[in-house]
Write a structure and sequence with these properties.
Layout (H helix, E strand, L loop, with lengths): L1 H13 L13 H5 L7 H18 L4 H5 L6 E3 L2 E3 L3 H13 L4 E5 L4 H15 L4 E5 L6 H11 L6 E3 L8 H8 L3 E3 L17 E6 L1 H4 L2 H13 L3 E4 L6 H11 L31 E3 L24
Parallel strand pairs: 2-3, 3-4, 4-5, 5-6, 6-7, 7-8
Antiparallel strand pairs: 1-9
Helix pairs in contact: 5-6, 6-7
């Protein structure tokens, strides 16, 4: 489906000149692409391509184009998964690599998850923040039990502990552990966030939300509510990850982003080995990543439309 939409774009966009000021991300892309019903990942690709062209013409970077007060060093969450021994070993390795924040998947067996959290905290001993992600797998009562067992100082936040986001204030009152929303952002009315005490963070995945413009608009609204946005990936290539890092660079504060997913790939698209250094992405090391692409690994989408 995404391939078909990408093929069709050549026809659909030929007669649509790029509007002036579209880089302001104040609705220009929405008007320009109106009626095309693009998949979120395709929309992200189109907006990224246009913004990179505009940035290159202006002899600047994507993050500087969006926000002149950007930062160029992006801290990352180091991902932990596996049994207790595995997550302990991963935590030790990531700390040695310079990571200052770790993210542990929970939401399975409650007792085992509690033991994992305690084991990881015994490794990091305050040298890194611990973030937890339950993917809505617990019931409300199980989430409260888990939070009570680990204690409010065991983690920086828990991402999506249960499905019913309206019970977040009750959870926060009982546990004092802040919540990060991810999946719920696709259904929750943004105005409802004002009344949800305990929601301190939102996890933003531009390839799911539907592009750079929508993501930046959500970031601005979150700022008004004193909620911190955190950029996260859906297993994009290095080019996608670097774009997400550029967007993360436009945020007011450099919260650790969820971009440590490239290690699950056997091979990358870039001729350069690795884009993560000491738990960070240094954007000034990749001002023109397109020059580093190994095009032998890229599949061309042929235009069969006449």
């Amino acid at each position: 489906f995404a391939v078909q939409q990408t093929q069709q774009l050549k026809v659909n966009l030929l007669e649509r000149p790029i509007p002036e000021g579209i880089q302001k991300l104040n609705g220009g892309f929405e008007s320009w692409l109106e009626g095309l019903a693009l998949a979120p990942s395709v929309r992200f690709g189109v907006e990224t391509a246009i913004l990179n062209i505009m940035a290159k013409k202006s002899k600047t970077t994507l993050s500087a184009l969006i926000n002149p007060d950007h930062h160029t060093t992006i801290r990352l969450n180091g991902l932990l998964c596996g049994n207790i021994d595995e997550v302990q070993a991963q935590a030790e390795s990531l700390l040695k690599d310079g990571f200052q924040a770790l993210k542990l998947k929970v939401g399975g067996n409650l007792k085992e998850d509690v033991e994992k959290v305690k084991a990881v905290n015994n490794i990091i001993r305050g040298h890194a923040l611990l973030h937890l992600d339950a993917n809505q797998r617990w019931s409300f009562d199980a989430a409260v039990e888990f939070a009570t067992e680990i204690g409010c100082d065991a983690c920086d936040y828990i991402e999506e502990p249960f499905k019913d986001y309206q019970r977040i204030p009750e959870f926060f009152t009982k546990t004092f552990i802040p919540i990060a929303l991810d999946e719920s952002l696709l259904t929750v009315d943004f105005e409802e966030l004002k009344s949800l005490e305990g929601v301190d963070f939102i996890i933003l995945k531009p390839t799911v939300l539907g592009g750079v413009e929508k993501t930046c608009q959500i970031m601005e609204r979150a700022k008004q509510l004193a909620i911190s946005p955190i950029l996260s990936s859906c297993y994009e290539s290095e080019i996608g990850i670097l774009t997400l890092a550029q967007i993360a660079g436009t945020t007011v504060r450099d919260y650790s982003s969820g971009l440590d997913t490239l290690k699950w790939f056997k091979k990358g698209l870039l001729q350069k080995d690795g884009i993560i250094e000491k738990g960070r992405i240094y954007l000034d090391h990749f001002e023109d990543p397109l020059k580093l692409i190994d095009f032998d690994l890229v599949t061309e989408i042929y235009d069969d439309i006449h």
